[in-house]
Design brief:
Helix content is about 50%, strand content about 10%. It has 17 helices and 12 strands. The strands form 3 sheets. A 6-stranded mixed beta sheet has the order 2-1-10-11-7-6, with no helix packed on it. Helix 5 runs antiparallel to helix 6 and helix 12 packs antiparallel against helix 16. The longest helix is centred in the middle third of the chain and has 31 residues. The termini are far apart.
């Protein structure tokens, strides 16, 4: 099935519980905090379902067409098809949707290259993949315990419940869970939420090791939104990115939520609860999307930097051209990393399937953690004071006298006043607004803290091969050899 935007929006009217502060939201599809983001996701589905895009966006299996990001790759061509689908979908949002529908779908697809890893729950993993694929499901995820839960002894001393999502009872029908998970980016816009653990758990943390998925309107489940940024955008002219691309972040609260056994994937197994992401192709499939999305975002930022330089004529200054060249080289390095993940594909985790090169994928994640802030700083420096010199908003054009002065005094030899205002409004929305601040924080931490990302790189490095090079040199360095 290739879901349409209309079908997606209709599915959100399901009685989910969403809070902004103490305000309960009855319909996220019409509320000013979320309606434009809902429309953005609807456009995502319409783009993917368009027959003109079928060659890049779909594949046929079991007699039906399915979204290309559910394709279980058997060769490099399959990986390239998946990658091109991610690229086209990311370009529609300029790489600003980190948790678009193709993200968790890729994780679940990657797990299903080796579902046997899940033991007694293997059939559940297979069934959930088919459910997502056949219904074109949009799933979010929350796979980190709240920060406060990292000191469980504190809650024991205070005789308080641990805030982390955990199993509190089970019976023949399923398990009951209570507690919180973070950070469910885009869950308010999604159909389902995948709950798990990306950080290692202590062996005794069996109750917290539960991995499962539930619909967003499950009784007892509530989504607590951070401050929505969409309402701060008065118009698309004044805040073109905040207006339509705030995918929202939320904490997920479970209050005695019943999860049927058919939706449980890991239980009482702390090691597998975390290991399932790196012992299957889940991380590789899902974070190839992340790498490619960041590449699309980087291309937007480099283009913006160049346009800003052109707007003032600074692009003719050698030092500025050097800066633009450096940004272009950074983009090319990331592009090469993404391409290399396909070229150096691995036959893994089982014979017959291939996955994106894991070392290069993790290198791409580290690239983003280390470089995004520096890229934003470059764009900020190129903006200078220009972003602060514009009128408050486009309403200045409603007054003929003010409009004439604005058009006269804010123009430059390179660009009209209105075009400059549009450019700097866009720039501010990605370097200085609350939306920009959220993205700066997001790109630094969405794959985990920097030490976690680098640990992935450490784990996948071919240390034995490299040590062999050093050892071969050391073996040649024999004492008592000829001296010249």
């Amino acid at each position: 099935m290739l879901k349409t935007g209309k079908e997606y929006v209709a599915g959100l009217k399901d009685g989910r519980v969403v809070y902004i502060g103490d305000q309960r939201i009855d319909d996220v599809t019409t509320h000013p905090a979320f309606r434009n983001a809902v429309n953005t996701i609807a456009e995502f589905y319409d783009l993917k379902a368009d027959p003109a895009n079928r060659a890049q966006m779909a594949y046929e299996e079991d007699g039906q067409l399915h979204s290309a990001y559910y394709l279980k790759a058997r060769n490099r061509d399959d990986l390239a098809k998946r990658s091109e689908c991610h690229r086209i979908l990311s370009q529609a949002s300029y790489g600003l949707l980190g948790r678009s529908p193709d993200y968790i779908a890729s994780f679940v697809t990657g797990m299903n290259l080796n579902p046997e890893l899940f033991g007694q729950f293997a059939d559940n993993v297979r069934a959930y993949y088919k459910f997502m694929r056949d219904k074109d499901i949009y799933a979010a995820h929350a796979i980190v315990s709240p920060q406060a839960a990292r000191d469980p002894a504190f809650y024991q001393r205070q005789n308080l419940p641990n805030p982390s999502c955990r199993v509190i009872s089970e019976d023949a029908d399923g398990v009951v869970v209570s507690g919180m998970k973070m950070l469910a980016t885009a869950s308010i816009l999604a159909d389902e939420i995948w709950i798990g653990n990306i950080l290692p758990l202590a062996p005794e943390a069996k109750a917290e090791s539960i991995t499962f998925a539930v619909p967003c309107n499950t009784p007892g489940l509530s989504l607590w939104s951070r401050k929505p940024l969409e309402p701060t955008a008065r118009s698309e002219f004044d805040a073109p990115l905040s207006w339509r691309f705030d995918e929202t972040d939320a904490m997920v609260m479970f209050d005695n939520v019943k999860v049927p056994w058919s939706r449980v994937f890991v239980h009482n197994d702390p090691a597998l609860s975390r290991g399932l992401y790196i012992e299957t192709a889940a991380h590789s499939y899902g974070n190839h999307h992340s790498n490619l999305r960041l590449l699309v975002k980087m291309q937007m930022l480099v283009g913006l930097a160049s346009r800003i330089a052109q707007a003032t004529g600074a692009d003719q200054v050698p030092a500025v051209r050097e800066t633009l060249g450096r940004l272009a080289s950074l983009e090319a390095l990331l592009e090469a990393t993404v391409a290399g993940q396909i070229h150096a594909a691995e036959e893994w985790p089982v014979p017959g399937y291939v996955t994106f090169n894991r070392r290069m994928m993790y290198a791409g994640l580290n690239w983003g953690v280390e470089n995004y802030s520096a890229v934003i700083d470059c764009v900020r420096e190129l903006c200078g004071g220009g972003v602060l010199q514009m009128p408050a908003d486009i309403s200045v054009m409603n007054n003929d006298e003010l409009a004439e002065r604005f058009k006269t005094y804010w123009q430059t030899p390179q660009m009209s006043a209105i075009d400059r205002m549009k450019l700097f409004k866009l720039a501010w929305d990605i370097v200085g607004s609350e939306f920009a601040g959220r993205h700066l924080q997001y790109e630094k931490f969405f794959p985990g803290a920097s030490f976690i990302v680098r640990n992935h790189n450490f784990r996948e490095a071919p240390w034995a091969k490299w040590h062999g090079v050093i050892d071969s040199i050391l073996e040649r360095m024999q004492p008592g050899g000829p001296i010249t």
